[in-house]
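Pasting as-is:
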Amino acid sequence: MSKGTSKEMNKMSGNSITGTETKSTTIANKLEEEILAKKYKAGETLPSQHDLATQFNASSRSVREAFKNLEAKGLISVKQGKKAIVKSNSLDQFVESLSASMISKQAPDKKLLTDLMQVRTTIEVSAARELSRDPNRMLIVRSLDRACTKMEHLLPSLDGAKDTEAIKQYKATEFEFHAALIKSNDNIILSSIYENLAPQLYAAMDRLPETYSEQKKKVNEYRYLVDALVNGQTDLAVALTLVNLTNIKDKFETLDL
């Protein structure tokens, strides 16, 4: 897991970190990474607080705060003797709980869906940046290219908005394009939350009005993005992704839910 994952979770839980990471965050991020990689398997004991404080040149308080962070995510349990036992090598339960708390006890409202749009933007911008730098990116880029080519082929049938089947295929293919980009990123927490809540977001987005000229412009942007990814043009790939998602977000915010 990347350091960005834990930072995003701190932001979402209201514990935003400004500037350099705190010692407790650094310790928690490293231990989380090792637990998820199964360096410490479920049932095994983490190093003692004293050993971790020495390893990270930190205070015992920082180690205790790190343990609380991991305990809140369901990864460890801390015994009275201050030993930390690994409970799970997966964040699945934590993600499900967080998703449920985001939905709360009522139908998702506009604020929740707007927040989810922001999660989507964070994931896709990060994915575009990392994918453009990945020397093994072409497998994913080819899947994006296929989706883009299909949308290009469907475009003529969208003019006039009369071919309902073409419109349906276009929207499904656009979903596949974004899904492929999202799955390429390594922020597993945000990706899991998005996957759990995406059907509600797309149900709302399905109501967005879109003219043929807007569809054509958007498909052109997708093509430019694919080309930027092929050529490893990081700044261009990030800019195109951000412009595309910002335009969608602006239209979404005008929707009356």
